[in-house]
Amino acid sequence: MAETERVYTIPLGVVKSVPIYRRSNRAMAEVRKYLARHMKTPAEDIKIDPGLNAAIWARGDSKPPLRIRVRAVKFEDGGVEAEFAGER
């Protein structure tokens, strides 16, 4: 089985219902949950690139972006690497 590469625009509007001091943490959890569902792999097997982490945390913990584009690559062993592909 070959590598599978996909680009997703992940909506992060659900983090607005979380207390302001936890929003970026919740956004990271939502990215991991979204990729686990769409790439059909456990959340533990998803590796978040430092660039994606920096993009979510760029404006601090209280103002993560409302949506983010992610390039996800699934490998033969089931692991997934997610990297930042730009906002929107």
Task: Briefly characterize the structure.
By secondary structure, this protein is of the alpha+beta class.
Description:
By secondary structure, the protein is α+β, with helices and mostly antiparallel strands. The chain has one domain: Ribosomal Protein L31e, Chain: W (Roll), CATH 3.10.440.10. The protein is built from two helices and four strands. The chain has a four-stranded mixed β-sheet. The longest helix is centred in the middle third of the chain and has 17 residues. The protein is elongated, with a radius of gyration of 13 Å.
What is the mean pLDDT? Answer: 94
Which percent range describes the beta-strand content? 25-35%
Q: Note the main sheet.
A: 4 strands, mixed
Number of strands: 4
Order of helices and strands: EHEHEE
Rough outline: elongated
Global Rg: 13 Å
Sequence stretches where pLDDT stays below 50 over 5 or more residues: none
User: Architecture, according to CATH?
Assistant: Roll
CATH homology superfamily name: Ribosomal protein L31
- What count of domains describes the coordinates? 1
Instruction: Report, as a whole number of angstroms, the end-to-end distance.
Output: 30 Å
According to CATH, what is the class?
Answer: Alpha Beta
Q: Which structural category do the helix and sheet elements fall into?
A: alpha+beta
Would you give the CATH topology?
A: Ribosomal Protein L31e, Chain: W
Helix content: 25-40%
Strand line-up in the sheet with most strands: 1-3-4-2
Task: Give a topology summary.
Elements: E1 4-11, H1 23-39, E2 46-48, H2 50-57, E3 67-74, E4 80-86
Parallel strand pairs: 2-4
Antiparallel strand pairs: 1-3, 3-4
